[in-house]
Amino acid sequence: MNRFVVVSAAVFLLISVAYLPLLNELYWSTLTSLKPPVRVVADLLVTNGTIFTSEKSLPFADSMAIRNGRILKVGSFTTLKDFVGDGTVEVNLEGKVVVPGLIDSHVHLISGGLQMAQVGLRGVSQKEEFCKMVKDAVQNAKEGSWILGGGWNNDFWGGELPSASWIDEISPHNPVWLIRMDGHMALANSLTLKIAGVTSLTEDPVGGTIMRLPSGEPTGLLIDAAMELVTSFVKEVSVDERREALVRASKYALTRGVTTVVDLGRYYPGTTDELSWNDFEDVYLWADSTKKMMIRTCLFFPITTWSRLSDLKLQKGHVLSEWLYLGGVKAFIDGSLGSNSALFYEEYIDTPNNHGLEVMDPEILSNLTMAADKSGLQVAIHAIGDKANDMILDMYKSVAAANGERDRRFRIEHAQHLAPGSSDRFGRHHIVASVQPDHLLDDADTAPKKLGFDRAEKESYLFQSLLNGNALVAFGSDWPVADINPLHSIRTAVKRIPPKWDHAWIPSECISFTNALTAHTISAAQAAFLDDHLGSISPAKLADFVVLSTNSWDEFSKDGSASVLATYVGGKQVHP
After folding, report:
1. What is the 3-state composition of the chain as percent helix, strand, coil, each rounded to the nearest 5?
2. Cβ atoms of 436 and 477 closer than 8 Å
3. Is the N end or the C end of the chain the one with fewer CB atoms within 10 Å?
4. Nearest Cα to Cα of residue 408 among 562, 527, 557
């Protein structure tokens, strides 16, 4: 036994000596090949701020590190200083409040940009001022050219609806087409009606109304689908004009801290469904390829073109670039409250026997929704009246049951007036409520006149009720219907005090500041399947954020009273 051990030891010693040079070489080659880890250096280090992250795990931080347009890390300066290196730009916020880049969940971006260069009638409060603005536009235009504009609200001058007779004398040689602020009614002068062939003999189209005098002659006002009688004659704006409109609108949005929008396109009742596709191909793809995009944009398209979008998403995916995202499809079921075309169970008080309009056949809409959902697309449907909302809630429930479970995030755009119990259905069936707080400022005076006090109080803008039912609530402006101004929208949702009022309209529906800010950030991102990229200040997210004018979170969180000091997109300051 001892002899065996001695022999084995000798053999092992000889082998070790023989391979020692090889083992030594292997050791040193391995050692020299081990390099220290590469240190990550931030492009931008933002410090000394009050950063609201919109993340529950870390609601606040004082610093963040950014590299290649995305957030590396969020925390205290001591945990981030190792990211400082050659080329790192340090920005000391001096205590300023920072929020994630604000998301507007419902805009018509190019329409807004175009309207900025047209006759702007927003806020006009007198008939004389309305007419003067049209007259000035005619005097500055060539004879025969179209006078286009919009934004008027007849409630601002007492409720009287405008008519062609207001402007015929000042526009005898120029066709005029002025769209109401809600996009569901427009005024044409007599020359425009003549060009379009609209007379006393013209029948109301399905889903639309031609307003008439007792004699049967058109007044010049066309509602919803009836607008198509004129829009097909309006000269389409050029590609260059639409591109300029995108740039103009984007710059304006950035001044308000908006870094991302969900664009529902130039698709309204009475317009062709090709406009959204024309803008996608002529404007958005151009802007993306030429690096002219300034804000991130999620695009929705008319539901009638669902198969076209489905094919495109299969080919390109949801994310076209860090600027462009393919969203889903949009449809309408009713009109608007201001135009008396929103669909209600009970009649309008100011227009007896009128319950509103179905602007699309419900069976056709249901079939289109079924097909679009089956292909995997997100569906968003405009519904304002209580009956319209219930119809869409019922339809969504049926479609989901037929097509099976998945994360579909059906959306109802506006969800403005809800019958008792309907607010709970949003959360129960995982339906997004895409709402616009600033609309309530216009409707607080008019809704009781149209619906009656009790209906208006029980049904209107039920934000807190939706949240109580665990609905995902996303805020938007519907720009250019209302101004694109999230900080103002947040204040409205928190306080609900209309102009010239000294108290809240339906105070039980006021929501907390945090819920309102969340509705313009992470909830807005979730509502459009953008939450993997946007909506919060957290690692790997795109570095979009807004520096505000205040140093006090406590003061800001009372009602959002602050202004935009600077807007950053992808870690770069883009405003001012």
Report:
1. 40, 20, 40
2. yes
3. N
4. 527
pLDDT of residue 32: 33
Angle between the N-to-C axes of helices 362-374 and 386-403, in degrees from 0 to 180, rounded to the nearest 10: 40
From the number of C-beta atoms within 10 Å of its C-beta (0-12, 13-18, 19+), residue 297 rates as: buried
| 165 touches 211 (CB < 8 A) | no
Going by their DSSP bridges, the two strands 218-224 and 296-302 should be labelled as unpaired
Residue 335 vs residues 82, 180, 208, 224, 386: alpha-carbon distances, Å: 56, 12, 9, 7, 12
Q: What does the pLDDT look like over 343-355, one tens digit per residue?
A: 999 999 999 999 9
177, 193 in Cβ contact below 8 A?
A: no
CA angle 429, 435, 441 (to 5 degrees): 145
Cis bond upstream, residue 480 (ω within 30): yes
- Please give the structure tokens belonging to residue 64: 């963040």
Helices (H), 34-157: 77-80, 109-115, 127-139
Q: Are 392 and 333 in contact (CB under 8 A)?
A: yes
Residues 6+ apart with CB under 8 A from 238: none
Instruction: Let me know: does 297 contact 113? Beta carbons within 8 Å.
Output: no
Least confident interval from 28-32, 359-363, 418-422, 438-442:
28-32
Six-digit token pair at 311?
């094919």
H helices of 404-534, in order, are 422-428, 439-451, 453-459, 463-468, 486-495, 513-519, 522-526
Radius of gyration of the chain (CA): 29
CA dist., res. 437 & res. 513, Å (int):
13
Q: How far apart are CA 243 and CA 248, in angstroms?
A: 9
Cα distance between residue 194 and residue 230, in whole Å = 10
Length of the chain: 576
The predicted structure's pLDDT at residue 37: 59
List CB contacts of 70: < 8 A, sequence separation 6 or more. Answer: 540, 541, 542, 543, 570, 571
- How much is the pTM? 0.85
